[in-house]
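[Solved] Which block belongs to which protein?

Original post:
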Amino acid sequence: MALDRETVIRTALRVLDEVGLDGLTLRKIAAELNVQAPALYWHFKNKRDLLDDMATTLLVDSLAKFGVPTESTSWTELAESYGRGLRDMLRGHRDGAKMFAGTFLTDDSVYASMERAIGVLTGAGFSPQDAVRGLNTIYCYTIGFTIEEQAVHPRPDERDERYDASDRAERAADLPLVRDTSDEVVGNFDERFEHGLQVIIRGLARATDD
């Protein structure tokens, strides 16, 4: 059977879940496909090229799952769903946020959803520039937050034992402010993410009032 690009990408995502980003190699993907590594170079020039397509595939899958904003979507609803949906997408794979960060999107179809998102914000009074900057702020916040989250939880049901709130509190026993807020650094991820997202949204709301 001929080896196609889509098969390689889907296989790479499965291998990513098994070995993480640092362990992901074209050789390991080829072994999973029962081919020699040079066979993959027909489709991808290097690992960076493959990562670009892996990230794009995740985004396209996510857009198909969550849909695109409609004319009735408010800008705050859009901002919330964008941040939450992006985080859910990234957490769907081990090291998903690290893999996604800095990638080049290879499917031009994703620009249609971006156009609609910008349109929702400009319809609410944002300038196009402020709309893009606002969405990018949410994007960068979500990427960074999820990278840190996945350092503690490589998988949703797995925790790196080094990041233990009680151990951190014990190490900072003489520093009460650090000791008593340990969960705010290595725990409470859902609550903390939502808090930060709402802080951004409130800041954007004030920007439209200026």
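(Second protein starts here: sequence line, then its structure tokens.)
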Amino acid sequence: MDDIWRSLRSLPLWVQVWVVGILVPVNGLPFFLLDTRVGVAASLAALFVVVTNVPLMWIYRGMNKVLSIPHLIAWVPLAIYLLVLLSDSGFRSEAGATEVGLAILLLIINGISLGFDVMDSIKWVAGDRATPGLK
């Protein structure tokens, strides 16, 4: 656990704020809207990320670039689903403002995350397996 904490704290401050202050909390919001389609879909995606990333953090002892791969697997289908929902005027008229807002927020935040994740995944596949903060 100390290695994981050390690894997280070794990242640039803006990355720490991004992960701990924005990405994780935004992807936790859907659990408060499990009575909606967006809440269920996003919660399932978030659970997949947790179930895959936690063991990877333990194996690599920190914030390794491999953590980006489960994000690609979860966020791309979620983004497609959310875009399809938002393009349907029936969904927009029947969904509440909170559900529509959550869908838009998830698209923005996870879309930004996907940009980082694509770069990190490519680097990891190319051989960059170092875990920040570890000697």
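Accepted answer:
You had them paired correctly. Confirming on the second one: The mean pLDDT is 96.
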